[in-house]
Amino acid sequence: MSHMFEAKRREYTQGGLRRRDLADSPHAQFERWFAEAEAAGLSDPTAMVLATADAQGQPSQRIVLLKHLDVQGFVFYTNQSSRKGRELAANPRASLLFPWHQLDRQVKVSGAIERVEKAMAASYFASRPRESQLAAWASEQSQVIGSREALMEAFREAETRFANTEIPLPDNWGGFRLLPRDVEFWQGGAHRLHDCFRYRKDEDHWVIERLAP
């Protein structure tokens, strides 16, 4: 069975983006757009597509959640033995994409990856709901399992193991910080004449460039 999608299109008419509208740094511009995404009622404005590649260059993608942002970079947390964790260990570079479709906007961030300090990861882990903490212990993320019941049994074992006690940070669980080198802000435009600006790190300052759509 095949499907044809040529006729599925729409115009992007929610406004343009001009150089004069941009903040001096991508951090400030992202915070501005993020606040507008929240004000618009987007259900998951922190959801971002994380693209990694293994040692052979094979890319893979998945959605993760932004949990911290500062002038250093974008932080997310995961099981570091998962596929993304292994790929980031082998090739510590990644790309993030925030697909804010309702606003006809995208933000793409590319750069190097570093591990988050263990104390910071432990503090965030302690703030998670208890069931999410138990799930981190129960799930060997990205590994083949026999059934849903096997996963639930591992969850019940974690419940028993940590009954009436605080749940510690698993050894293989932590955070990654993407250190941006390029940040692109894309605003959809009519007739596919979109507006896209790239912040490019040049030593200790940011160069802002308009890119053709």
From TrEMBL:
Assembly with partners or alone: Homodimer.
Pathway: Cofactor metabolism; pyridoxal 5'-phosphate salvage; pyridoxal 5'-phosphate from pyridoxamine 5'-phosphate: step 1/1; Cofactor metabolism; pyridoxal 5'-phosphate salvage; pyridoxal 5'-phosphate from pyridoxine 5'-phosphate: step 1/1
A Pfam family it matches: PNP_phzG_C
Name of the protein described by the UniProt record: Pyridoxine/pyridoxamine 5'-phosphate oxidase
Protein purpose: Catalyzes the oxidation of either pyridoxine 5'-phosphate (PNP) or pyridoxamine 5'-phosphate (PMP) into pyridoxal 5'-phosphate (PLP).
Binding site for FMN: 62-67, 77-78, 83-84, 106, 141-142, 186
Cofactor: how and how many bound: Binds 1 FMN per subunit.
Family from the record: Belongs to the pyridoxamine 5'-phosphate oxidase family.
Molecular-function GO terms, alphabetical: pyridoxamine phosphate oxidase activity
Keyword Oxidoreductase: yes
Positions contributing to substrate binding: 67, 124, 128, 132, 192-194
Boundaries of every Pyridoxamine 5'-phosphate oxidase N-terminal domain copy: 36-158
Catalytic reaction annotation: pyridoxine 5'-phosphate + O2 = pyridoxal 5'-phosphate + H2O2; pyridoxamine 5'-phosphate + O2 + H2O = pyridoxal 5'-phosphate + H2O2 + NH4(+)
Keyword annotations from UniProtKB, A to Z: Flavoprotein, FMN, Oxidoreductase, Pyridoxine biosynthesis
Cofactor(s) listed: FMN
HAMAP family, per database record: PdxH
EC numbers for this chain: 1.4.3.5
